[in-house]
Design brief:
Layout (H helix, E strand, L loop, with lengths): L3 E6 L3 H13 L3 E7 L9 E2 L2 E4 L2 H4 L10 E4 L6 H13 L4 E4 L17 E2 L15 H4 L7 E5 L4 H10 L6 E6 L2 H16 L7 E6 L5 H11 L3 E4 L6 H6 L1 H21 L4 E7 L8 H14 L15 E5 L1 E3 L5 H10 L4 E3 L5 E2 L1 E3 H14 L5 E4 L5 E2 H11 L10 E3 L17 E4 L6 E6 L11 H15 L12 H8 L16
Parallel strand pairs: 1-2, 1-5, 2-4, 5-6, 8-9, 8-11, 9-10, 11-12, 12-13, 13-18, 14-17, 15-20
Antiparallel strand pairs: 3-4, 6-7, 16-19, 18-22, 21-22
């Protein structure tokens, strides 16, 4: 890392903490000034570094070199403030603009340079995240053993980052892909070395939830007190092309986890779900709808499914910037000069930043009880074309004039709009901001099994499609049979054009 000249935007606790760290290390760079709008701070010096302002007036007047960096250290800044700051700093020709995470990732006054990163479009899009006191919200995890399935994914890895400050005794990082687990483990260890978080023992684990023997063996050994189940195949068009894999992984992998968790008396089990589970039109949505059913049917109703325990479900919409999602795609398309492709100019989706979603999940898990469904308040849906145009402007271009926006039509299984609540689901007030508790009547659901008996029957019919059964060999990996089994329960499931039998 080059020892550059750094202007810190914000002379509050976070900016001061980072400035002291930069001074102590020396090799990171040199802080030449704080820029702030607080009239009581302007004109003062902090650790012999001048505080200049107001920001809009002085940022273009300070003497800069071509390598100078700006570091936004205002974790409580609103999205509107960040957009204004980004525009101002970009016009001032800073070589690099870095940002400190939102308040949701900062515990107390614990801010470190290692937590900063280059500013990204997702930092400027959507609404201002809710301010959550992580130290209080995570008190239920102190001294506990916490398992994250899918720990290398976008949600799983952010859970791990925030849990680092939760006082857990152990963090088990379970994933199927070794590279993603290696990366999050290395990141967490580096954060710990730099003073971020507590002294939790980090344990990386490679494994497959569809291997029931291994899952039972693993949970008996780990003795996890809390499990966050984020592991799932999630890409809608990819799962339309590989429907059996989606059901095998997302449904039977979940069932294996639930049964093993019951066997070892796991205290809390939390499923991360999606708005695509509501009236699903695609296989991914169906698989998550079934995963919700495995969690939410009451234990008393589920004697026929080996007394599988209930868990807590947290459902929300899309997250900005997750792997395989729309923002990374838009970014790649913009970097090559366009066009930026959208499915339909009228299509809308619910969006939330990953850190905010994870903070709310952690808070919900602390208050939720088995068998309860919670939905995160996602705000108003965002038009996809508007999102594409905002992305193009972030990179300094004009939509259509510089970078064309091209409409390509909906892909297999996709809807124009999504919804967060099914029929038979009534939102109720909840004391925590942006968390909605849901009162359910399974008999009124528009899709999916409505009882434990129906769920057991459906799983029985799906199993030989996902796992070889000598008595029914023709059903193994048979896509036509899969849709034949699912369609009576999921009337909105769209056909896959030209789908082969196997």
């Amino acid at each position: 890392m080059s020892a550059s000249r750094i202007y810190i935007i914000g002379a509050g606790f976070a900016g001061r903490a980072i400035a002291r760290e930069i001074l102590d290390k020396g090799v990171i760079g040199r802080v030449v000034a704080f820029l702030d709008d607080d009239t009581q701070k302007i004109g003062t010096r902090i650790d012999d570094v001048p505080v200049l302002g107001p920001i809009d007036q002085v940022v273009s007047l300070v003497e800069k070199t071509p390598a100078d960096e700006a570091l936004i250290a205002i974790p409580s800044a609103s999205r509107e403030d960040l957009r204004r700051l980004h525009t101002t700093l970009r016009r001032a020709d800073f070589a690099r603009i870095r940002i400190l995470p939102t308040v949701s990732q900062i515990v107390g006054d614990d801010a470190h340079f290692i937590q900063t990163r280059q500013i990204d479009p997702q930092d400027l899009l959507g609404r201002t995240p809710v301010n959550i006191n992580l130290r209080v919200a995570l008190s239920y995890l102190r001294g506990r053993r916490v398992l994250i399935t899918g720990a290398g994914g976008s949600i799983g890895s952010e859970l791990a980052r925030q849990l680092l400050s939760g006082g857990a005794e152990r963090l088990y990082l379970l994933g199927h892909g070794e590279n993603s687990i290696y990366e999050i483990e290395a990141e967490l260890r580096l954060l710990q070395e730099e003073g971020v978080g507590d002294t939790a023992t980090i344990v990386p684990i490679i494994g497959d939830l569809t291997d029931s023997d291994y899952v039972w063996f693993l949970l008996r050994r780990l003795k996890a007190d809390v499990i966050f189940h984020t592991a799932a195949y999630k890409h809608v068009p990819m799962m339309e092309a590989n429907p059996v894999a989606a059901i095998q992984n997302n449904v039977f992998g979940t069932l294996n986890l639930i049964e093993a968790a019951e066997a070892v008396d796991t205290g809390r089990l939390v499923l991360i779900s999606t708005d695509k589970a509501v009236r699903p039109s695609n296989i991914y949505g169906v698989s998550k709808n079934l995963a919700e059913s495995l969690f939410l049917l009451r234990p008393a109703e589920r004697d026929s499914i080996e007394d599988t325990p209930s868990g807590t479900v947290v459902r929300f919409g899309n997250v900005l910037g997750s792997r395989g999602s729309i923002l990374p795609l838009f970014r790649r398309q913009i970097e090559k000069g366009g066009p930026v492709t959208i499915t339909d100019a009228t299509a809308t989706r619910f969006f939330m930043t990953i850190p905010e979603a994870v903070s709310l999940v952690l808070q919900t898990a602390g208050v939720g009880t088995p068998g309860e469904l919670f939905v995160l308040d996602m705000g108003e849906p965002i038009n996809i074309r508007d999102l594409a145009e905002q992305m193009i402007r972030f990179f300094g271009f004009t939509p259509d004039a510089d970078i064309p926006v091209q409409e390509i039509g909906l892909r297999p299984g996709e809807k124009l709009t999504e919804t967060l609540f099914d029929s038979g689901e009534v939102p109720e007030d909840h004391p925590s901001e942006r968390i909605v508790k849901v009162r359910r009547n399974p008999a009124e659901r528009s899709a999916g099994p409505c009882s434990a008996d129906q769920l057991q029957t459906l799983l029985h019919e799906l199993r030989p499609v996902c796992f070889f059964d000598q008595s029914r060999p023709g059903e193994y990996r048979n896509r036509w049979r899969l849709r034949e089994v699912l369609t009576p329960y999921y009337p909105d499931l769209l056909p896959y054009p030209g789908e082969p039998e196997y």
